[in-house]
Amino acid sequence: MEIATTKRVIDVLVLIFVVVAAFGAGFFIYPMIADHDLNIALLSKQINDTNQSCNTGKLVEDSYCLRDVLRPNFKYNITQINKQLTEEQLYVQGGVCSQYTEWYKTRLLERGYYVATPTIKIDSHYNHVFAIASNNESYCILDQMSVTCLVFEN
Fold first, then answer.
1. With 60 as the cut, is the pLDDT of residue 1 above it?
2. Residue boundaries of the structural domains of the chain
3. pLDDT per residue over 29-47, tens digit each?
4. Which of 28, 106, 118, 121 pairs with 14 at a CA distance of 20 to 30 A?
5. 2-151: which CATH topology?
6. pTM given for the model
7. Could you tell me whether strands 114-116 and 119-121 are parallel, antiparallel, or unpaired per DSSP bridges?
């Protein structure tokens, strides 16, 4: 009789432990999920704000503004070579020169600038690509986190 009672007590204790563990895990997991959802919401807002900002009609200002928008989310990640990424994936996972060049190109074209994306050879295996944007007043070289602009003298 004592063995059966001891087994029941152990079963009840195990059940209580499982319930408490599951309940306790919720306190840790829920904030992580909520934080992740908040981060995605903030990222979506930032993407929408970017599409509406940095649009002064002045290439130099817009180029530096776009670089400043990209800066907090810039992560060079060589594992992304030859992958198509959404803007959200680029911000979260990071990317390489070609993805950041495409990011700049898309936004600069939306703002009405001319854009070229030259590719240069680094060595026998690798290339590097960057954006050059222009209008009738200036041109800017946008290369990941580097922006250099020159104004035409009239």
1. no
2. 2-151
3. 555 454 555 555 566 566 6
4. 28
5. C8orf32 fold (3.10.620)
6. 0.70
7. unpaired
